[in-house]
Design goal:
alpha/beta; Rossmann fold; nine-stranded mixed β-sheet; two-stranded antiparallel ribbon; 6 helices; 30% helix; 20% strand; globular
Length: 243
Amino acid sequence: MKPRIAIPQPHSQRQEYNERTLPHYTHAIEASGGEPVIVPLSATPEEVARIVTECQGVLLPGSSADVDPQKYGEERIPETNDADPLRDNADELLLQDAYNMRKPVFGICYGLQSLNVWRTGTLVQDIQSSANLNHSIGSKVAEAHTVSVEPESRFAKILGEQFPARIPVNSSHHQSAEMVGDGLRVVARSEDDIVEAVEGTNPEHFVLAVQWHPERGFDTDAASQKLFKTFVEEARKYKPKQV
């Protein structure tokens, strides 16, 4: 049986954004041997709980929203986009279940930021004020910059020895993790020292999040395929936590 992967809709208001971006995530999950299960942001907490109970993994996709800075104790600056409370609520419910039951978690772009804040971390609200690279260049450029990968990390083991210490990535974000949340560690940084990937410190729980968009280059990029296929395989191996 294919492992079922819960994926919240990227945004509660921008349907055109969902229609444009969500198929990339579902394709990558399907091509990796999983079954995507879309979580409507209009679902009640009880409905979300029912959906995720039948899933073996959680993927948190990107979004055009920004996490509400009040969640990490800061005032919003003008550059910060509007929050999406329904997306935030769905992410928190999915993360709570995943952490309670030790289900694999894979966060992408906004998904990394959402995970980090949920784990009591903080964000840089607008990295362009301090970054030397253009991190918001978007899908127009397939390889925006490179990231250096921590050699002893789970992330490095996923990539394998055939990959160099620096790998090229795309880039479509204006925020990033600042103080990393509880139980997370930085495992990749860009050339200008922006946090580009974090992973969980518990070796018995697969938690990985990246700041770029591996779903966009899935069909042609070997590193992107490794990330998705490892995540789906972790979901396939998942056994419910004994309580």
